[in-house]
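agent> step 3/5: call structure_predict on target 'C2H2-type zinc finger protein' (Halorussus aquaticus).
agent> reason: downstream docking stage needs a structural representation; sequence fetched in step 2, passing through unchanged.
tool.input:
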Amino acid sequence: MTGETTTEETEVPPGESPAECPYCGRPLESEELLVLHEGIDHWDRLDDERREAFRETYQRENDDLRTFRLKLLGLLVLVYFVFLFVYSWETTDPYSVVTVIPV
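tool.output (status=ok):
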């Protein structure tokens, strides 16, 4: 499958003017996505300026993903400790589940 480009079904809403790839004609939602698409799918065709734009956009995207993952990890730890504190508050014997279930 080397050298082949896949044709993806896309539907552009009426009145919208998406960024369109100059190499394959694929419509993309924003200029940032266009830069990432060009860098991933059309690297050999890009000039030095466009390659540098791809590198900067890719780095910014990686930084945003890293920040998102750290925030999600912090939220997961917070939820875990909230459940732990609620459980310890509601039970007198932490090894017994019977006291949590109302009879």
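agent> step 4/5: record observation. Strands lie at 19-20, 27-28.
agent> proceeding.
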